[in-house]
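Entry — protein

Goal — fold tokens:
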Amino acid sequence: MTTPQDDRTPEGQLVEAARTNRSPVLSIRKAASMAGISEGWWRQIVKGYRTVKGGVRISVDAPADTLAAMALAVGVTPAELRRIDRGDAAASLELLLQSTPDGWDGDLSAVPDDELIAELDRRLRDRLGETAPPQLRAVARRVDPADRSTFEGD
């Protein structure tokens, strides 16, 4: 008799082991959120398949960038990804690690709202300048979009 764990891909086994071996254990929901993917997609990648109509299983292969984000969320290293022949994901993870501040686990819940909004505003101005839609600029400025005076001159 086979168990669902027997069907897991090497990357699914690696990511799941890293997630469950953390202390405290990271929930799938939290890990998926940190990786920027849905909980359902996380589960499918870990299982290595998705089930469609009629109970048919279809193989699921994690894209390199997605697997790298999952690895970052649970602490898998590029070397570990290479050991399971996922050099593509290891390279993506290395890029993520280079752009990620030391010690950051991807969780923004402890960052005060005003700091997040200020950073969003800064990035919007850097990337879009004054071409950003007025509604988007209003959100970044933490202004009530229903207040039409916000958009005067926009």
Q: What stands out?
A: The chain has two domains: 4-99, 113-148. The two ends are 66 Å apart (CA to CA). Residues 150-154 have pLDDT under 50 and may be disordered.
